[in-house]
Amino acid sequence: MKTDRGTPLKQAFRNIAIASLFASASLSYAQLEGSPPIPQSSNHPVPAIQDTETPAQRDARMQWWREARFGMFIHWGLYSIPAGEWHGKRTDHIGEWIMNDLSIPVADYKAFAKDFNPTGFSAHDIVALAKSAGMKYIVITSKHHDGFAMFDSKVDSFNIVAATPFKRDPLKELAEECRKQGIKLGFYYSQAQDWTAPGGAAAVRGNHNPETGHWDPAQDGSFDDYLHKKSIPQIKELLENYKEYPVVVWFDTPTKEMTPERAAEVVKLVNQHPNLIWNNRLGGTYKGDTETPEQFIPPQGYPGRDWESCMTMNDTWGYKSFDANFKSTETLVRNLIDIASKGGNYLLNIGPDSHGVVPAPEVERLQQVGQWLKVNGEAIYNTQATLFGPEAGSFSPTEKDKNGKPKFISTWDWRSTTAPNKIYIEIFAWPTGPFHLDKLPRKVTGAYLLADKAHKPLKITPSGEGLDIQLPSTPVDPIATVVVLNTN
Ligand code: GLC
Predict the structure, then answer these.
(1) Which of 6, 129, 187, 443 could form a disulfide with 10 if both were Cys (CB 3.0 to 4.6 A apart)?
(2) Does the C-beta of 94 come closer than 6 Å to ligand 1?
(3) pLDDT category, 152, cuts 50, 70, 90?
(4) pTM tops 0.90
(5) Cα–Cα dist 465/256, whole Å
(6) Nearest Cα residue to atom 2 of ligand 1
(7) Which ligand 1 atom sits closest to the C-alpha of 188?
(8) Residue located nearest, by CA, to atom 7 of ligand 1
(9) At a CB cut-off of 8 Å and minimum separation 6, what does 334 contact?
(10) Helices (H), 303-354
């Protein structure tokens, strides 16, 4: 197996590609592949903790999150009732956007609430599933763009307790189970978009009003009224009513309405919870704590920034009855390893249905990922990024990506993660002969298979500036077998 740091020309290509990737100008609501970065600054009318804390304070605040590496995203809400279809029309977009994409009138959408009685919901089972998958934290949608609150909100009655026959607070039940089972809990909150509250923002789709994004006069009103009478008061409820939770707040889609002044009002609130971790999607140029690449893995991660790749298991965040395009367990495990090797976290989504039940293909995959982590978690949790780098792939000197930039060609032969006295090599493509490392970032004193509890030494032979590792003829795990290099 050959690795190289790439020729100077390749490195130059790589630098140009990375720089140009962030050169484009327009705003982005989500951090999709190739989209320009969400505008960020460190100077604000109301400083956020990220603007003022020392690196040591930041490291202490982020420590548990960095060590966690793997979390569960839960997109669950009223959109699980239509489940991707309304009046015989199917949406080909993500399920939680159905109200916007199919221009469902506010009254029709709100009418779903009377049928929402997810008695199949079990906070115990969902938290146990996250734990069995090896996930260390959960982030659940407390209110998505549709404006329906999945918690007992006294601020607005369009919520699961007041407006449905279910009458229970899933966030409260999850908080109790997370406390019991020892896993952290965060809340996603769509702070700007709200398609059922008068004045709520709406990303413009199709023939909707080009200024407000609205499609129903019932949506019209003052954004400041929405912000002050619903959004900020609900964020306050979420921060104050669930004891030690949330430990994470996941803002989403900072539309043009989220000016620095308005975002500053939210920051005043989150500043009262100094241990809170929140992401880069509040708006108003607040960078938050984490980059949030969505549905992709950044080729080189974000050096110097904490980041989290959020991904669906199929193609939708919110449940769609007809989306069976689930990624394989192999893909999910290798994504987790790839992300960890670049110093990021993997936030992997489940989308419970209208009964509160997690689709079986998602349960099955999470349990299989958990099996891999049970044997190999040491190579993922509390590790740092690779000391090598070129193993992830390279930028094509000829092919261009959709933005005309050099296309990154991933190679999926192996990855590496790092610990103080160990280097982990996660091998995807089992070599026919010895596994070769071209250069060594540290002195290697021995090697063994992580799955081998006896740590029987593997034969290592110096080879050029690197070494050859003699491996068994077949991999321990066809998805990824981990070799541990003892280093000093
Ligand atoms: C996008 C979508 C939103 C989803 C989020 C998850 O912002 O608009 O529906 O919740 O991605 O990252």
Answers:
(1) 6
(2) yes
(3) very high
(4) yes
(5) 53
(6) 30
(7) 10
(8) 30
(9) 412, 428, 479, 480
(10) 329-341
Nearest CA to ligand 1 atom 10: 317
Question: Residue 31: enclosing H or E segment and its boundaries?
Answer: strand 31-32
Predicted confidence (pLDDT) at residue 19 exceeds the cutoff of 50: no
Segment 395-453, tens digit of pLDDT: 999 999 888 889 999 999 999 999 999 999 999 999 999 999 999 999 999 999 999 99
Q: Verify whether ligand 1 is closer than 6 Å to residue 253 (CB atom).
A: yes
Question: Which pLDDT tens digit goes with each residue over 165-186?
Answer: 999 999 999 999 999 999 999 9
For 102-131, the pLDDT digits (tens) are 999 999 999 999 999 999 999 999 999 999
d(CA 477, CA 430): 10
What's the residue count for the chain?
A: 488
Candidates 80, 56, 48, 221; CA nearest to 148 is: 80
Cβ 202 under 6 angstroms from ligand 1: no
Compute the distance between CA of residue 467 and CA of residue 417 in angstroms, rounded to an integer: 18
d(CA 304, CA 307): 9
Q: What structural domains and CATH numbers belong to the chain? A: 49-376 (3.20.20.80), 390-487 (2.60.40.1180)
> 269 CB less than 6 Å from ligand 1?
no
Nearest to 380 by CA among 330, 327, 421, 342: 342
- Note whether 142 and 188 are within 8 A (CB): yes
- Measured in Å, residue 473 CA sits from the centre of ligand 1 at 44
Of 480, 419, 406, nearest to 9 by C-alpha is 406
Name the amino acid, one letter, at 241.
N
Q: Which of 252, 279, 316 to mutate to test the pocket of ligand 1 (most atoms within 8 A of CB)?
A: 252
